[in-house]
Amino acid sequence: MKVYLVGGAVRDKLLGKTVHERDYVVVGATPEEMLARGFRQVGKDFPVFLHPHTDEEYALARTERKSGRGYTGFTVAADPSVTLEQDLQRRDLTINAIAETDDGELIDPYGGVADLKARRIRHVSAAFVEDPLRVLRAARFAARFADDGFVVAAETLELMREISANDELATLANERVWHETVKALKTARPDVYFQVLKDAHALSPWFPELEQDETFKAVTTRLATLDVASTELVFALWMGELPDTGEVNALCDRLRVPNQWHKLGQLACQWHAAKQSLMQSSVVIDCLQQADVWRRPERFQQLLEIWREQGLGATDREKLQLAFHTASDVSAGALLTQARERGESLVGPEIGAAVQQARNAAITEVLKE
User: Fold this and answer.
1) Over 80: is that where the pLDDT of 222 sits?
2) Is there a domain that residue 267 lies in?
3) How many structural domains compose the chain?
4) In this entry, which stretches build a coiled coil (predicted)?
5) What is the pLDDT of residue 66?
6) Where does a domain end: 49, 84, 117?
7) What whole-number distance in Å separates Cα of residue 128 and Cα of residue 203?
8) Which of 82, 139, 231, 293 has CA 20 to 30 A from 4's CA?
9) DSSP single-letter state for residue 18
10) C-alpha R_g of the chain
């Protein structure tokens, strides 16, 4: 039995980047041998095991043979006869198909080291076209390493176009598309993800909203220059560049975007269009109500970041923050006390209405100054 470090850990080590997790491939072993050594099996579709002490992943060397349509249409074979080279050959990109022995020797049968030096994202073999998910993965790695000068090789881009032309992308599960897209949004250059997909003729069927040139330019320009604190905000600002909330809703439904992200995306789109009138008290009141900021005050800070990225100046943001904090200080208890002092009573829905009215008045007062 032989064990090799593989994949992203080897790639990132060679690039001088921090290695966050390590994956290993095991050649010449059976599941029974792994279990006897204390490993815990976690893989359902193929034998993957967790180390008994480190919880790092150890996968038995395997081959994959195309047996059906889409990214799930593969027959997997994992047995002691599968070689390291065969296991590496099934991988998507050469930069992910490098192995390292315990003593640091690199095993690189497909030219991954040369591609790292050339800053090139290239497929391992013609089998690349068998898995449509690889189109999204290649685009994601282009985004991840764009600032290091990496580009997709021309011959790989041609294979990506072939996959697009065969409508294989439509076979992907929306959860997988969303998962890859979120990873791309976490990179420093999420705009590159969509640029590569466009170059690969792969915006449809998952991102048809971006096929309009004006929208594509607005989205990629925005994503290229962001300075926000979370991936959720990156997504919201992407949605903010779509023409209307109808397109936001269509995209979010198609990808099954989490409800919280969907709502923030709606708000970013809605208020980007209305930013010229954002400082009007009626517009601010409507926005804060829709954002549910009184129950979820953290959402106001998200809105402030979105508005900053969308061009709202520091003075206006400070005024909005003051309006929000002033309105937040409105107390139902204080309003009830004031009502009793006037000989009045507030019950049931009247209390909520009085609180909202007082908040609206506080916002209006701050914004008129």
Assistant:
1) yes
2) no
3) 2
4) none
5) 66
6) 117
7) 19
8) 139
9) P
10) 26
Of 100, 117, 134, which residue sits at a domain end?
Answer: 117
Q: Is there a domain that residue 296 lies in?
A: yes
- Percent of the chain, pLDDT > 70? 96
Backbone torsions φ then ψ of 289, nearest 5 degrees:
-65, -45
Entry pTM? 0.89
- Integer angstrom CA distances of residue 48 from 24, 36, 60, 275: 10, 14, 6, 51
Which of 58-67, 123-132, 271-280, 284-293 has the least mean pLDDT? 271-280
Quick one: pLDDT at residue 117?
A: 98
- Domain assignment present for residue 41? The answer is yes
CATH number at residue 66: 3.30.460.10
Residue 9: pLDDT over 90: yes
- Cα(324)–Cα(90) distance, integer angstroms: 55
111-122 pLDDT, tens digit per residue, is 999 999 999 999
Mean pLDDT, the chain, whole residue set = 92
Domain span at 308 = 274-369
Distance between CA atoms of 161 and 139, rounded to whole angstroms?
12
Count Cβ neighbours within 10 Å for each residue of 130-153 and write b for 16 or more, e otherwise.
bbbbbbbbbbbbbbbbbeeebbbb
* Secondary-structure breakdown of the chain: helix, strand, coil percentages, each rounded to the nearest 5: 55, 10, 35
Which residues does residue 41 pair with via DSSP β-bridges, in sequence order? 49
Contacts of 176 (CB under 8 A, 6+ apart): 71, 133, 136
Q: CA 182 to CA 190: how far, in whole Å? A: 9
CA dist 144 and 156 (Å) reads: 17
